[in-house]
Task: structure prediction
Amino acid sequence: MSINANKVKPEIREKVMQYQQECDDALYDYWTKGIAINHRLNIKERLAAFKRLHTVADQLCRQRRPSLQKLLHTELEELAMLLNVEAPLPDFPENTTAKIGDPRIDGDAMYEFWDLYEMRENPRRPKLNHSPDSNQIAIEPFSFRELCERQKLNFPDINQLREELHDRSR
Result:
């Protein structure tokens, strides 16, 4: 160790020595057993952290918004580091064809738009889609926005939505 415990202030000497011993034990366990466990975590804390790790991994796989995926991935890595395990890699469909609502082609405004559309489109409500072709969707965005506002639903910014639609159609 590069810190000489005899050359530090007497009030922190014991902590430095504990730190050095824990580092020595962790390195020894890692190189001889293949794993080093943080014994300061009790079993209940470890189980709660493992449960949270699996919950975050599950949320990450289902999350469509890249900004939230990034936050969840950061939390997943922190939990994995705390537990001294490898962070599970989410199973994203990278080799599949992108569809509507896929984070590879849609931005946040598009996500919000399609979420609202799916929430509002059902047989008991007035049809939002005015297209005679069942393979196409034709929605008047200003009417849709008014409908959402009457129900106190947050409609995405129309200019951002237009920009994302324009970028997508190129």
